[in-house]
Write a structure and sequence with these properties.
This is DNA ligase (ATP). The chain has 859 residues and is α+β, with helices and mostly antiparallel strands. Helices cover 19% and strands 29% of the residues. The protein has five domains: 174 residues, no CATH class; 182 residues, DNA ligase/mRNA capping enzyme (D-amino Acid Aminotransferase, Chain A, domain 1); 117 residues, Beta Barrel (OB fold (Dihydrolipoamide Acetyltransferase, E2P)); 105 residues, DNA primase, PRIM domain; 143 residues, Alpha-Beta Complex (DNA primase, PRIM domain), CATH 3.90.920. It is built from 16 helices and 42 strands. The protein has an eight-stranded antiparallel barrel with strand order 1-2-3-4-9-8-7-6. The longest helix is centred in the last third of the chain and has 19 residues.
């Protein structure tokens, strides 16, 4: 009898494909299988043909079917579903690119996911070929059927059929695959590759007509424009991330490194509004004056504000400085769209016509502070390469003919630049699965200090059958017995390796390079022969043994002032120790994160007793939860007396303390709901919405919104943050009137009230078995000495996610609680600028009243 996942593993070379093997989590998942609802996922997969992979969790694996046309909500439509090999449970989160030459080569996104509930015995139904079940996902819901057919083929042929219920819709009225094309866990999409004759035509360089500058076309007619009142609010259209430039008719602009701003103009009055709906007109008075000078009756304009450096490139730090110093005369507003103009709603007008209208009205602009964001007629790959060489972020693509929609859309895409460098090919691995010739190239670089040739990682993506054959011929002629690098890889990376004379060179794009010089997420771009191999070295800074002192961003008004002086003097032992193998993050990188995030995290830590989650050997090793210093020396970590504890409790309230805690292996910081010296009176309570991990994320959003509604009705203002894991934390600040028991009882009453109103959604009882298919409202964090993870604390999970405060307005568009991590958080903070989601928390004055307790049924 075949072992689970045997066929899946046989078809894949995990040294070259990013797909999960499932080995790392198999034991853990099996142990937890009874403690969560059964999950399902649907992955959109652009392989030999674009199709949808439908997967149901059963007996520790994902039972899988390939559905060529995707699901249909019409009960009269039977969609072919070809049964394929089982996949590991952690495949349900997989998104990425499977390299050319490997089984299933192409792009993959998670199109839908959630929980499935079988009707009857699912094992019996699966064996007999007749599964009936209900789905609750981000996109799909209601009752469905999988039925095995008697059609002959190399694989079992099933049908996926929607049952006739309230979620059903005729195919003639609605196509969910076409209407909702994007990922549910990220901002990715898949732009299907065109094939055959159409593909050849689509790959030709995009040509756009020459612009008419300096003149307006009176009476210019815009198809689909309609008279409409001026919208009071308008949410900007957002771009979806794609891995590479797609085929088709797209118009490309530079991706600016600035702040997105919408301009509302009505009867000469200009308002400049951020993406989150905040009015920043007072911060940019000169730009408002320049817009007013355009003489528009009414308009909504879309664009991005930047500050340009001496080379004419956007400089985000300079933009921040301009806002901090009130220097709006340096800020340039690049306009790229006009969804409303002079009494006409243009949102249904094709993007190229909207932009032509915008270019025409900008022809009369005389201010250097306003500019039109030009697009390019050249080949987009060439434009992207030029943008990357100029150290720009990348490109924004807009599909010709597309309307303006106030949401993230696949008709606007963003293509980001990658790092590119030449490497020496020092070896290769054997192919696995459907791959021919070789699996991956092993790469090397000369160290700039010692001149030694060092291992720099591998690349298994970017090859087609032709390049595999061509490169392989050159590899075979250069084989040697021993590696030429001084630090050859070990373990799985070295298994089946063939070593080469260090003569061949190649150019590789990669997302990042770890501190030990190994690249990740790499793509092969071709062999190089224009340089001698000895000239190829790694571009890197000198190795550091201490935390480098970094510029600390200015703290927002109304919050504690942080001083990072002296942080650079804290020595970090074992700086290159890997604490998270999945991203190659080191102990030094973690310490640098805490040093840099000090201005944001310290307001949540000031005076609060803290418990540390330490992982001295990394997140895969043993974790220690530490509330007291004991005999351990924690550099720069302070202590304060707790009247009910013979040992003093810990305080981490300085930048030096943060870095000192990281030096001792601290990953997470958890805080009390009270501050010293008034430890007997909590100043807040926290509701930790903790879901069954299999639930769709939209259930978490709905649960948070329902909780916020209840708090609003009670008259309590609340603030939000992501947990960095699966849930959301609702933080309710309080004046210091009540003791611990009263506050905890009140938070428990909220949990019980919600669970009583909606028992199918919420649980007020702890334990995984009590939250199967539900969300546990964890009130237990509100007792004396209990803790919750601090805002901006790292979590000891794969990828090192961070718990992050968010605006209430951001909740509906949030795609998960672990979106931000130690490597992308500062992009988030840069985008927010002074727009701190928790800016008003310290000034919020409110208390739990007798009327609130009565309304919750408390005595």
């Amino acid at each position: 009898m075949a072992k689970p996942l045997e066929e899946y593993n046989r078809k894949r070379d995990f040294s070259a494909t990013p797909e999960p093997s499932g080995a790392a989590r198999r034991t853990r998942r099996k142990a937890a299988a009874a403690e969560h609802a059964l999950q399902y996922c649907i992955q959109k997969h652009d392989a030999t043909r674009l199709h949808y992979d439908f997967r149901l969790e059963l007996d520790g694996t994902l039972k899988s079917w390939a559905v060529p046309k995707g699901p249909c909500l019409d009960p009269k439509v039977r969609r072919l579903a070809v049964h394929v090999e089982d996949h590991p449970l952690d495949y349900a989160d997989f998104e990425g690119h499977i390299p050319e030459g490997h089984y299933g080569a192409g792009d993959v996104i998670v199109w839908d996911r959630g929980v499935w509930t079988p009707e009857g015995d699912p094992r019996e139904g699966y064996r007999k070929g007749k599964l009936k079940f209900s789905l609750e996902g981000e996109k799909l819901s209601g009752s469905w059927n999988l039925v095995r057919t008697h059609m002959q083929g190399s694989k079992e042929q099933w049908f996926l059929i929607k049952s006739n219920d309230e979620a059903a819709r005729p195919e003639s009225e609605y196509d969910i695959v076409e209407d909702q094309p994007d990922s549910v866990i990220s901002d990715r999409t898949i732009i299907p590759r065109q094939r055959g004759a159409k593909a050849t035509e689509a790959r030709r360089p995009i040509k756009t007509p020459a612009r008419r500058r300096g003149q307006k076309e009176e009476g210019q007619r815009l198809a689909n424009a309609r008279e409409a009142p001026m919208p009071e609010k308008l949410t900007p259209q957002l771009a979806t991330l794609v891995e590479s430039v797609p085929d088709g008719d797209w118009r490309y602009e530079i991706k600016f490194d600035g702040y997105r701003i919408m301009a509302r103009i009505e009867r000469g009055k200009v308002r400049l509004i951020t993406r989150n709906g905040h009015d920043w007109t007072a911060k940019m008075p000169r730009q408002a004056e320049a817009l007013a000078a355009l003489g528009l009756e009414s308009a909504w304009l879309d664009g991005e504000v930047v500050v340009l450096n001496e080379e004419g490139l956007p400089d985000f730090q300079a933009l921040q400085n301009a806002f901090d110093l009130g220097g709006s005369e340096r800020i340039v507003y690049y306009l790229f769209d006009v969804p409303y103009l002079n009494g006409m709603d243009l949102r249904e007008v094709a993007v190229e016509q909207r932009r032509a209208a915008l270019a025409a009205l900008m022809a009369d602009n005389e201010s250097p502070l306003l500019r039109f964001s030009e697009d390019f007629a050249e080949d987009p790959d060439a434009v992207l390469e030029s943008a990357c060489q100029m150290r720009l972020e990348g490109l924004i693509g807009k599909r010709a003919g597309s309307p303006y929609v106030s949401r993230r859309s696949s008709s606007w895409i963003k293509v980001k630049c990658q790092n590119r460098q030449e490497f020496i090919i020092v070896g290769y691995t054997d192919p696995k699965g459907a791959r021919n010739a070789f699996g991956a190239l092993l790469l090397g670089l000369h160290d700039e200090d010692s001149g030694q040739l060092r291992y720099a990682g591998k690349v298994g993506t970017g090859f087609n059958e032709a390049t595999l054959r061509t490169v392989y011929k050159q590899l075979k002629a250069r084989e040697i017995d021993r590696p030429a690098v001084v630090n050859p890889p070990t373990g799985a990376d070295a298994r089946g390796a063939h070593w080469l004379k260090p003569e061949l060179m190649c150019e590789v794009a990669y997302a990042e390079m770890t501190r030990d010089g190994v690249i990740r997420h790499s793509v092969f771009h071709g062999l190089r022969s224009d340089k001698p191999a000895k000239a190829i070295s790694r571009e890197r800074a000198q190795p550091a043994e201490k935390v480098e002192e970094k510029a600390v961003p200015k703290r927002r008004s109304g919050q504690a002032k942080a001083n990072a002086d002296g942080v650079g003097q804290i020595k970090i032992s074992h700086p290159d120790r890997i604490i998270d193998k999945t991203i190659g993050a080191t102990k030094l990188e973690l310490a640098q994160y805490y040093g840099r995030v000090a201005p944001w995290i310290l307001p949540d830590l000031q005076g609060r007793p803290v418990a540390l989650v330490r992982a001295p050997e990394g997140i895969d090793g043993e974790l220690f939860f530490q509330k007291h210093a004991g005999k351990l020396s924690l550099p720069h970590v302070n202590q304060t007396e707790d009247p009910e504890d013979p040992q003093p409790v810990l305080l981490v309230d300085t930048p030096e303390g943060l870095v000192g805690a990281a030096q001792m292996g601290t990953i997470e910081l958890h805080t009390w709901n009270a501050t010293a010296p008034k430890l007997e009176r909590p100043d807040r309570f926290i509701l930790d919405l903790d879901p069954d991990p299999a639930l769709p994320w939209k259930r978490m959003i709905e649960a948070t919104q329902l909780t916020l509604t209840l708090l609003d009705e009670l008259g309590l203002r609340s603030f939000l943050k992501t947990s960095g894991g699966k849930g959301i934390h609702v933080v309710v600040p309080l004046t210091r009137r009540l003791g611990w028991d009263a506050v905890k009882d009140f938070s428990q009453a909220i949990a019980r009230h919600m669970a009583k109103l909606m028992p199918d959604r919420f649980s007020a009882i702890s334990g995984p078995k009590n939250r199967v298919g539900k969300i546990f409202i964890d009130y237990l964090r509100n007792g004396r000495g209990a803790t919750s993870v601090a805002a901006y604390s790292v979590r000891a999970r794969e990828g090192l996610p961070v718990s992050v405060p968010i605006h209430r307005e951001e909740l509906a568009d949030l795609k998960g609680a672990n979106l931000w991590n130690i490597r992308n958080l500062f992009e988030r903070l840069d985008e927010l600028g002074d727009d701190d989601p928790w800016a008003d928390m310290a000034d919020t004055r409110q208390a739990i009243t007798a009327d609130m307790r009565r309304r919750l049924g408390m005595k």
